Amino acid sequence: MFFLHNSRAFLFLLLAVCTSISSINSLLPTYNDHSCLNRPNQIAISSYISNQSLATLLDSLSTKASQSNSFYNDSNGGIYGLFLCRGDVSNDTCRDCVNYATKEIRSRCEFNVLAGNRSAIIWYDECMLRYSDSNFFGEVQTEPKEFMWNAENTTSGVDPYYGAKHTIYALLDAAVETDHMLFKADKKAVGDGTQLRYGLVQCTRDLNATTCRKCFNYLMTYFEQLQNRIGWRILAPSCSIRYENYRFFDLQSEATQPPPPPPTPPAPGVSRALSP
Ligand SMILES: *[C@@H]1O[C@H](CO)[C@@H](O)[C@H](O)[C@H]1NC(C)=O
Ligand SMILES: *[C@@H]1O[C@H](CO)[C@@H](O)[C@H](O)[C@H]1NC(C)=O
Ligand SMILES: *[C@@H]1O[C@H](CO)[C@@H](O)[C@H](O)[C@H]1NC(C)=O
Ligand SMILES: *[C@@H]1O[C@H](CO)[C@@H](O)[C@H](O)[C@H]1NC(C)=O
Ligand SMILES: *[C@@H]1O[C@H](CO)[C@@H](O)[C@H](O)[C@H]1NC(C)=O
Ligand SMILES: *[C@@H]1O[C@H](CO)[C@@H](O)[C@H](O)[C@H]1NC(C)=O
């Protein structure tokens, strides 16, 4: 029972348009989705204290982000939480995103706190934040997951295998084998070599290389359902994968190269679905 509103797809589209126009220095992170997990039958015995614990935890996470951490997991009063910023975003962007997320997750999932189920997740382009009243640190969690895709089909000429699959698997290998940040974003020439595809993969860093790989492998079981899309994402609590035909990340190593062409305008009807 998650939320699927057309208005939100529209909102996403609007945000995507706004951010690609104003692009730099936009302080509001780009919202993707959120989920509040309800456990209505359990009434929190000390909801006031839990509420305070959650507030304290979220404040602490926000502080950690302002101290230039791009990932942090912490617990307080039996509530466990973490944030993760996308591997390429600046310290300032990370701080702003996490700060905003801690407020938004409270207001969007407030009912959740009152009902005694203290488990929620919110995803932005720039960061994600989650908390739960059970200790999930180190566990591969792939639910709830969200699929997003561009309604446009792949342009002809690029076989999906050499496009998306090739690109993504190379990144997955690099992220778990060579990068302790469990993050990789890069471009790959596909088709006849003149077309570029861009991918980004990342795990929360409470995982290790082995469990991160496990998380990616699980998400990739959905690849065939997405392979004909020119762009798509799979977001899960422990890991995420994104693939596009334009550059959507910012890497230091590319700083000296000429700026990328403006992003493809989002196709009508960016679609999304939260799976249970
Ligand atoms: C919250 O409720 C959902 C469904 O009602 C349940 O699956 C989930 O385990 C609960 N959250 C926690 C942290 O137990
Ligand atoms: C929970 O905390 C928030 C923020 O501190 C506050 O606005 C809200 O009233 C609190 N709710 C309860 C039930 O204590
Ligand atoms: C971001 O913070 C980290 C950790 O403090 C630091 O190593 C890095 O240089 C900072 N990056 C920038 C661009 O200031
Ligand atoms: C990775 O984490 C899992 C789960 O916490 C643990 O069982 C496993 O031993 C860890 N692997 C390594 C290589 O540390
Ligand atoms: C994409 O391809 C599918 C199957 O090949 C087709 O049914 C659908 O109409 C196409 N969508 C667009 C937007 O071209
Ligand atoms: C963060 O998670 C790790 C497991 O990945 C755990 O060992 C560590 O204690 C956690 N840190 C805090 C502050 O809870």
TrEMBL record:
Residues 257-268 have a biased composition (Pro residues). Residues 253-276 are annotated as: Disordered. Keywords: Repeat, Signal. PROSITE patterns: GNK2. It holds the Pfam family Stress-antifung. This is Gnk2-homologous domain-containing protein. Residues 30-136, 142-248 form the Gnk2-homologous domain. It comes from the Eukaryota. Residues 1-23 form the signal peptide. InterPro entries: GNK2, GNK2_sf.
